[in-house]
Amino acid sequence: MQELLEPEAVMASFAWMRGEVRRIGHRMVDLVAEYLEQLPEGPTFRPVPEEETERFLSSVPPMSGMSVDQLLDEFARDIARYPFGNGHPRFFGWVNSPPAPIAALSEMLAAAMNPSVAGGNHAAVYVERASVNWFKTILGFPPTAMGLLVSGGSMAAVTALAVARHTAANRAGWSVRQRGMQDAPTRLVVYKGTEGHSCHQKAIELLGVGSDNLRIVPSDASLRIIPEELDRVITNDIAAGHTPMAVIASAGTVNTGAIDPLGAIADVCAKHRVWFHVDGAYGAPAILTDEYNAALTEIARADSVAVDPHKWLYVPVEAGLVLVKDAAAMRDCFSLVPPYLRTDGNAYGVQGPPWFSEYGVQQTRGFRALKVWMAVKYFGLDGYRALIEHDLAMARYLADRIRVLPSFEIREPTSLSIVCFRYAPARYEGNEETLTRVNRAIVTALQLGGESFVSHTVIEERFWLRACIVNPLTSESDIDRFIAALAATADQASVSR
Ligand SMILES: *Cc1c(COP(=O)(O)O)cnc(C)c1O
Q1: What does pTM read for this prediction?
Q2: DSSP string, 52-63
Q3: Residue 192 Cβ < 6 Å to ligand 1
Q4: In which element (H, E) is residue 410 found?
Q5: Residue from 149, 194, 254 to probe ligand 1 pocket by mutation (most atoms less than 8 Å from CB)
Q6: The pLDDT of residue 1 is above 50
Q7: Beta-bridge partner residues of 418
Q8: 153-182: b or e for each residue (b if 16 or more CB lie within 10 Å)?
Q9: Which tens digits make up the pLDDT trace of 146-193?
Q10: CA of 108 to the centre of ligand 1 (A)
């Protein structure tokens, strides 16, 4: 039986009196601790049983409230038991990291304050400004740049490319804010590499540029944009009377971790005066490591950059960050201040410094910054360097193990903390269809087996298993266990077909 709340009790609960917040808070912290402690002991993945999904999907909005204790029991029973597996030391799917406990718990503090960080003169605004400033320092952007926290790399791309579009249109003497993309006097064109993330295509479709105007620039054997090809394609477009709007380069692609030659691409962009956007959603934090610092320092030459603290910086989802070098262009692109929100020009008054809402899409904005700020302060940049170097070392160890695993093939070169590989015994050589079928069966069996989890991808029309290590809790013995599960699964897959 559910313990139901009377309406008077509901009113009282909102006042959060009588030690209830403390008692409930302690129970919640216990649940958090149990969850995090037990995660490595459980399976990497356990699908939600069908009858459970049915219970969720057929439920109706409750008329009366229920007691917090029963609610927390329900969380433990029906929700906490079915995570996607991220956070588990043998979960290597996509780019899903475990949450840093400091950042996970800080979500509760941020929600308790519950400010809108559209703007104003309150601490949350300064926490976000400080966090954004830190990333300018880390990535070599000048203090005059502007930035904000968004939901993730996808919204960071939309935000940055909107400013790029605004700037390109302005130069062509056309106010895209007024006229939109109707009767555009010129065709805007965007460039990305073969391995650029799909969120960029979504962004330019959303911005009305259209995917017909997204040029895919050829890449080299390491899947990096060839700068000479980029130069050639841009030159052709200019000759045809089109207007290059932006070049999108990757500071770590999601498939293989490839880092585009950022400096050479920056040169091409400077030559043609084209906006240079760097997608560092996954890879940018590796700038802190000695191994990748040189490859990533040229991020500083970008007009805009995206970084996802919710990936390699272990901040709970959602936390993306966008930086734009030309703060005035960013404000020009988005600022629309209704009279009731107009600032009084006094940064120290009620309204505070210029509002974040003038620099992006959202008006009401959450206090995302607290978890980012707390994580960076807690680990420090040296701490982050150590955590990321650990992941790089684990990926290297994994790659070394796969290179000597009989009948397996690894996609070279590997980069950052991603390793792509597949089961490719000699008898299947040249038979892509069979290779795809067998490897698809292996990845599904691995995922459902609950021992280890990898995802898959397709690179140059070939099917690969893909492991991305962004977890400081992953150890060599976890990698060994994964290799054992992989070999056993491959044996079975090749017997059963
Ligand atoms: C994850 C990712 C994105 C998209 O970011 P979201 O946070 O998922 O919106 C873009 N580019 C790369 C390289 C990524 O890894």
Answers
A1: 0.96
A2: HHHHHHT----S
A3: no
A4: strand 408-410
A5: 254
A6: no
A7: 415, 468
A8: bbbbbbbbbbbbbbbbbeeeebebbeeeee
A9: 999 999 999 999 999 999 999 999 999 999 999 999 989 999 999 999
A10: 25
d(CA 412, CA 44): 27
| 330 Cα–ligand 1 center, Å | 21
For residue 95, which atom of ligand 1 is closest to its CA?
A: 15
Q: Which two three-digit tokens encode residue 125?
A: 């605004």
Say yes or no: CB of residue 158 within 6 Å of ligand 1: no
Q: Give backbone dihedrals phi and psi of 27, rounded to 5 degrees, phi first.
A: -65, -40
Please, what is the angle between helix 369-403 and helix 476-496, to 10°? Answer: 60
CA distance 4 to 70: 10
H/E segment holding residue 135: helix 123-139
What amino acid is encoded at 29 in this protein?
V
Give the pair of three-digit tokens for residue 286: 């590796």
Spatial CB neighbours of 38, under 8 Å, sequence gap ≥ 6: none
Give which of 422, 497, 413, 477 is closest to 454, Cα–Cα: 422
Tens digits of residue pLDDT in 300-320: 999 999 999 999 999 999 999
Which tokens sit at 212?
């017909």
Report how far residue 303's alpha carbon sits from residue 290's, in angstroms, rounded to the nearest whole number.
Answer: 24
Name the 3-class secondary structure at 464: strand
The label of the residue with tokens 């976000």 reads 128
Q: Note the maximum CA span of the chain.
A: 74
Select from 124, 160, 130 the least CA-distant residue to 334. 160
* Token reading at 222: 């390491």
pLDDT above 60 (res 221): yes
Q: If you average pLDDT over every residue of the chain, what do you get?
A: 94
pLDDT band at 349 (very low <50, low <70, confident <90, very high): confident
Place of tokens 């940064």: 347
Nearest to 286 by CA among 67, 470, 83: 470
C-beta of residue 395 within 8 angstroms of C-beta of residue 418 = yes
Q: Coil, strand or helix: which one is 217?
A: strand
Crossing angle of helices 198-206 and 153-171, in 10° steps, is: 50
Integer-rounded Cα Rg, in Å, for the chain is: 25
